[in-house]
Structure formats: structure tokens, C-alpha cells
Design a protein that fits this description.
This protein has helices at residues 17-21, 41-54, 57-60, 75-82, 98-105, 121-125, 127-132, 143-149, 157-172, 188-200, 211-221, 225-240, 256-268, and strands at 5-10, 27-31, 63-67, 89-92, 113-118, 140-141, 179-180, 205-208, 247-249, 252-254. By secondary structure, the protein is α/β, with parallel strands linked by helices.
Length: 273
């Protein structure tokens, strides 16, 4: 199943790694970028590398690493550290070019994936190249950094335009719907309001900074009982029909797009790991 919850944990807090993995988040992103001060980055890499080697293959599949952006002074050290480590997926901060993705993948195993984190105007302008790059899992939107890059006073039309562009580029490239940025407040209601807005723009997952946010996103993504029952009736009738060009369920017409929507609703009810 496609992940819907991604939980950040600071790379310099190894005592939190296992707790994050046990939080129920579909993916845990160990952060070597913003959450770690420059003086702590080397030790964070050592601690993370030691922890990764202790995990089972199933656990490692749920762990991602956010590395520093390609223009930062720590990027080269991040890439050298990646080589030979069992990292399943990397989030590349401030992704702006396909060449950056290729460089990251050159230091990873052949089956490893990269999630470009789009945080700048240059990143948005490079969306066709980013989505076409080999090994990309899906896109994520760093909305807070994007506001800073474009000198926006806060959320609004300009931010939504970038978000929709990311969602459209993902769809055009047959990638999963993108991952929405973080909500700085822990409050579950605030998180779910932000999630609902992101969903209206074409996003299908959310970055989290606290385990309580993970719970809020899971609840917000989960179909209610009535919707789930409807989806099950539609899916059952569609699969049972001999020639499902169009059928009726609950007195309403159901064609292929409606049946596909029902299947997506059912998929949201299943855990991603």
C-alpha cells in the first residue's frame, strides 16, 4: 500500500529512532538536514549508520533519510556516508535538478529510491525533469521553505499554485500523489484542517513532526464507516458484473471512474506496512 504518514526524527537523537519506528507511521524519516546542527552532523551519521545495521529488512524498508541539499557544504559527506549502507530511500532536500537525483542514486544500491523534496521556485520549475528522473518514489512539498524562497507572508494562492503544480506533475508522471508539508502545530484539529486542504489540492500523504500528528493524519485519511460500506458495495458489484460498462448500486449509476474511486477508498482503509 502507498504510505500516507511520514514522521521526521532528528538524526542526532538516536534514542528516539526506535520510538519513531514504533509510532505507527508508515515511514520514518531520520533527518540529517534542518534538525541537526552543523557540529552534530558527523556524529548523527555514525549513530544512524549503526542503528540501520541492527534493523531487520522489514524495518529498514520503513526508514528513510533526509540528506542535505546538493548546494550545502554537508552534501558530499552525506553521499560518502550513504555508500554501502542499507538505506532504502533518501529524501533529497531542496531538489532542483534531475542530475542531483542521479548523483544521490549513484551512491546507493540499485533498488534504492529518492524522494525529491520540492522547496524552491527552481524546484517547481524543474518538476518535469524531477518526475522523469530514474528512481524517484514520489514528490514531497516543503511548503515552509517555499514560502521563504518566494518571500510569501504566509499560506495563500501562490503556495497553492505550487502545490497543485506538484500534484499535477506527479499525476502526469504516474507517480503516487505527493506528500504535503509539515504542520508546525501539534494540535490534531489543526493537522486535520491542513490535511483536508492538502487533499483538496491533490496530495495523498503528509509529513509529520510528532507521533500525535501521525495519529491525526491516519484518522483524517481513514474513510468513515458509511463511505467504506459504500465502497465495498460498489467494488463487490463491479467485480461481480459480467460486463461492467455501467451498473447500478444503491439506485445510482456506477461506471469505471466511480469503481476506481471505490477501490481507492478501500485502499486507504488498509495499512501501508
Amino acid at each position: 500500500m502507498i504510505p500516507t504518514t511520514y514522521l521526521f526524527v532528528p538524526g542526532n537523537r538516536p534514542e528516539r529512532f526506535a520510538k519513531a519506528l514504533a509510532s505507527g507511521a508508515d515511514r520514518v524519516i531520520v533527518d540529517l538536514e534542518d534538525a541537526v546542527a552543523p557540529a552534530d552532523k558527523a556524529l548523527a551519521r555514525i549513530a544512524l549508520g549503526a542503528w540501520l545495521t541492527q534493523l531487520s529488512s522489514t524495518e529498514r524498508a520503513r526508514v528513510m533519510v533526509r540528506i542535505n541539499d546538493a548546494l550545502s557544504p554537508w552534501h558530499a559527506d552525506d553521499l560518502s556516508w550513504l555508500a554501502g549502507l542499507p538505506v532504502a530511500e533518501v529524501m533529497l532536500a531542496k531538489a532542483e535538478a534531475a542530475e542531483q537525483i542521479a548523483e544521490v542514486r549513484a551512491h546507493m544500491s540499485d533498488h534504492a529510491r529518492v524522494m525529491p523534496l520540492v522547496e524552491t521556485v527552481r524546484g517547481v520549475m524543474a518538476l518535469p525533469a524531477l518526475t522523469a528522473a530514474a528512481g524517484v518514489s514520489r514528490l514531497a512539498f516543503g511548503a515552509i521553505d517555499y514560502q521563504l524562497d518566494l518571500d510569501l507572508p504566509g499560506p495563500g494562492l501562490a503556495l497553492d499554485m505550487a502545490a497543485v503544480a506538484i500534484a499535477m506533475a506527479s499525476r502526469a508522471a504516474d507517480l503516487p500523489s505527493p506528500v504535503a508539508g509539515v504542520t508546525t502545530e501539534i494540535d490534531a484539529t489543526r493537522v486535520q484542517v491542513d490535511l483536508l486542504h492538502a487533499r483538496s489540492l491533490g496530495f495523498g500523504a503528509k509529513l509529520c513532526v510528532h507521533p500525535l500528528q501521525v495519529v491525526a493524519v491516519q484518522e483524517g485519511m481513514r474513510p468513515d464507516a458509511q463511505t467504506l460500506a459504500w465502497a465495498r458495495r460498489v467494488d463487490s458489484a463491479w467485480r461481480s458484473a459480467e460486463d461492467p460498462g455501467a451498473i447500478q448500486v444503491d439506485g445510482r449509476m456506477v461506471d469505471k471512474p466511480v469503481a476506481l474511486r471505490a477501490q481507492r477508498i478501500l485502499a486507504l482503509a488498509e495499512p501501508a506496512h
